[in-house]
Design the sequence.
């Protein structure tokens, strides 16, 4: 069952992070990760058809698809992930969100996935500027020890969301791949990866993107 609350340490304002600054090598990996996030998440935006002046014929109009931002995105954080890699993934995700003209207008909710289930960290929706500090305030590396069957049951409430992003571990991703079935098409999974592969890929309707922990 989802729990509502506002735990200590969760910030309503965007304050300076007290986490260490990434070194040059980490910055390069973050920037590569941001580039792939941009390529992938731009493709997943909603679209509508709009009427615009024709670019080729004067005084004529044409119908073209237009990208639309999401109203809300749920970010689920697996308590099982280690602090160091969680910090790097959050740095890349928030860097992309702050700069992207579509995703920076979206509002965000953070959900913590622990052995006790899903906990909604704040009842209010966060702006892009508030998101990074609030993600940094989460305590991870708690060994959630829950499986994908439990996750599927908990996830039912988010099946109708336009977009959900899960930050989890490589061993959880490996376990999910062994099941050879998906969870929901609205789900994107970010995780620390030992693979040299740097591009996002799809499997059973879901999108995966590993943050390279080597290289």
Sequence:
């Amino acid at each position: 069952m989802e729990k509502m609350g506002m735990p200590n340490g969760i910030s309503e304002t965007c304050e300076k992070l007290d986490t260490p600054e990434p070194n040059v090598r980490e910055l390069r990996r973050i920037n590569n990760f941001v580039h792939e996030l941009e390529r992938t998440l731009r493709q997943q935006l909603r679209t509508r058809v709009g009427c615009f002046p024709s670019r080729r014929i004067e005084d004529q109009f044409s119908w073209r698809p237009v990208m639309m931002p999401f109203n809300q995105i749920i970010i689920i954080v697996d308590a099982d992930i280690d602090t160091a890699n969680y910090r790097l993934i959050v740095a890349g995700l928030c860097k992309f969100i702050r700069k992207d003209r579509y995703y920076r207008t979206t509002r965000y909710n953070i959900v913590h996935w622990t052995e006790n289930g899903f906990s909604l960290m704040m009842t209010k929706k966060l702006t892009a500027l508030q998101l990074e500090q609030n993600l940094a305030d989460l305590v991870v590396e708690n060994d959630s020890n829950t499986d994908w069957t439990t996750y599927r049951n908990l996830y039912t409430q988010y099946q109708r969301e336009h977009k959900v992003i899960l930050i989890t571990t490589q061993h959880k991703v490996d376990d999910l791949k062994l099941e050879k079935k998906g969870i929901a098409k609205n789900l994107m999974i970010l995780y620390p990866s030992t693979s040299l592969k740097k591009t996002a890929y799809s499997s059973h309707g879901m999108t995966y993107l590993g943050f390279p922990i080597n290289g």
Summary: The chain has a mean pLDDT of 85.
